[in-house]
Write the structure tokens for this entry.
Amino acid sequence: MIKTLLALIITATLSFAAFAQTYENTSQKMLSLTNERITIGGYAQIDYNQPLSNTVHKNGKIDIHRIVLLLAYNFSERTQFITELEFEHVKEVYVEQAWINHRIMNGLNLRGGLMLVPMGLINEYHEPPTYNGVERPNVDKYIIPTTWREIGIGINGNIINYGIDYQFYLLNGFNGYDGTAQFNGKSGLRGGRQKGAESYISSPNLAAKVNWFSIPGLKLGISGYMGDSQSKLYNNIDKTDTEAIAKADSSVIGISMLGLDAIYTLNNLELRGQYILGDLSNAMAYNQFTGSDVGSAIQGWYSEIAYSIDMGKENVYKLKPFVRIEQYDTHHKVDDLTIKNDIYNRTDITTGVSLELSKGAVLKADYQIFKNAASDDNNGQVNFGIGVWF
């Protein structure tokens, strides 16, 4: 059923491109063309996380979680290049994005490079002022998994008359096996992100997303991802060596992922929600070959309500309390030989508040309760954070 829905998404995407009428680029960073060729921006996140326990002392963690610098260059009104350089935990350096976008015609653009996979609410728009809570939702960490980016090429654009924007990309897939298993029950697919760092490809993958925003205040999204994980066992094997090919096949996971998301705003009220379901085929052979415990299906959802309160005579500050409930399970289903581990069936409740000091600068505080289906115990954590985006 998932593969059928994914096929419909891809067909719809290509149809939208054929009938595109009006161009208005709403790319990941919404770069506006001006008389200046160079654009500089960025975002940063500084966190304090304090786990709570009734029985033992736990140290808190204070971290410059990430600082990201955006550099963009406008070659012309049709062609732009955007890149983001990310510094995590002070000591780690990544290229978060690096892609070129070219307008072919009104409503149709060609894009290629290191791109964010269009899945869910957070993966594309993950700057701290754009989401509630000090930390990103765990559904977007363990199920999607944010920040998920790979190298590829495809099309994107808008059809304003129908209130639609779309993306359709051909990408390299997850690193599933490079001598060791990169997938497991605890973190799902997260360990397989290649991030454009000397990525290899043994088979291409497809990713697509369509957003609909015709009703004021409402945005609905449907996204899909389909393909196989990559395996280094395919490299340099004889195409007639059936035993070697069978061994390589057993190191691959087939991935079909479907995402639904929604944002609704009415005056100061904001509602958010998303649902992600991933079907992981060949899990039994993969686990037998690698000794891992990856599930045959992963699932996650969350719903959130927030209310923005204008503060002061000139409404200089905005206070936004919120509540979010999320549930995610990297062992939603398991193969016949893998024991379902209820520790991976987790529920988080997060409640907190954000104080917007200025557009793009925010202070955050929240309290989280972590539960799992294997225990009646609840673990708590208090978080404080600083977020900026410019």
Observations:
- Residues 237 and 244 are 7 Å apart (CA to CA).
- The helical segments are 2-18, 139-142, 242-249, 283-290.
- The chain has a mean pLDDT of 92.
